[in-house]
Design goal:
Length: 254
């Protein structure tokens, strides 16, 4: 492919962690090889802010939640966010109420991307959106598939005593986290680690893995390895009892 690979990115508005992905991705992007046509930034969890705050409070608890909230307020006051990072790199915002609505699908059709890239996108992509990319839709998932399908895979791998977090790039299918694996990266864990450190590290490593994958697609589309869904497990958002078990291993949240 002589011309740059044309991509659209769909992500969520998370200045704490997902922004770490884009700090690296935009900084190290070779624009001669990859052309980012636009980025769509949805609300985290695709829900009102108060619901997200309640969810995060139950997850982090009385001590760590205020610490995390202070970080969030500090970043928000600085004005640094994914939208600003995109703007600084000349990338347009493609707005959407839902990425599956007809009006958004028409925008994507007109942009005609080769690849749609999902980075913590808070919605399930339906068939028409998946079919909007000429070559493929890719998702980055911070878990080994299909064993760690679902939400918060970094947390679950740490809680379950894995030696590493497996960052996975896979093709997207209508069934969640079920498309073939294109690339992986193993991020080592310490016996007593912090979720904060690991999420930041896997976001940065994931950005580089995604760039490597997109460059490979530009040169020659790599073969996706189908998942053995008989080995599949699906994890929901952790509950306080899960966090207690996580801490009992010696891990910290922050």
């Amino acid at each position: 492919m002589k011309n740059p690979l044309k991509i659209i990115i769909i992500t969520e508005d998370d200045p704490l962690y997902v922004a770490r992905f884009f700090d690296v991705f935009f900084k190290e992007l070779n624009k001669d090889k990859i052309a980012v046509l636009g980025i769509t930034i949805s609300k985290a969890f695709h829900e009102p802010l108060w619901k997200t705050a309640r969810r995060v409070f139950r997850f982090y608890g009385f001590i760590d939640f205020p610490r995390l909230l202070f970080r969030w307020i500090k970043i928000k006051m600085s004005g640094r966010n994914i939208g600003l990072l995109a703007s600084e790199n000349g990338i347009s915002i493609v707005s959407a109420t839902s990425v599956n609505e007809p009006a958004y699908l028409e925008k994507i059709r007109l942009l005609a991307p080769d690849v749609i890239v999902s980075v913590a996108a808070p919605e399930i992509f339906r068939g028409p959106l998946l079919a909007s990319a000429r070559l493929t839709c890719l998702n980055i998932h911070s878990g080994r598939l299909p064993a760690y399908r679902g939400m918060m895979p970094t947390f679950w791998q740490m809680k379950n005593g894995e030696k590493c977090v497996t960052v996975t790039i896979h093709e997207m299918a209508e069934k969640l986290d079920a498309g073939g694996v294109v690339a992986t990266h193993e991020f080592p864990l310490s016996a007593k680690d912090s979720l904060d450190r690991v999420i930041k590290g896997t976001k940065q490593a994931g950005a580089r893995l995604m760039l490597e994958t997109l460059y490979a697609i530009k040169d020659c589309k790599p073969t996706a390895i189908p998942l053995d869904m008989t080995q599949s497990s699906y994890y929901k958002f952790p509950q306080p009892i899960d966090v207690r078990a996580f801490r009992a291993r010696g891990h910290r949240m922050l």
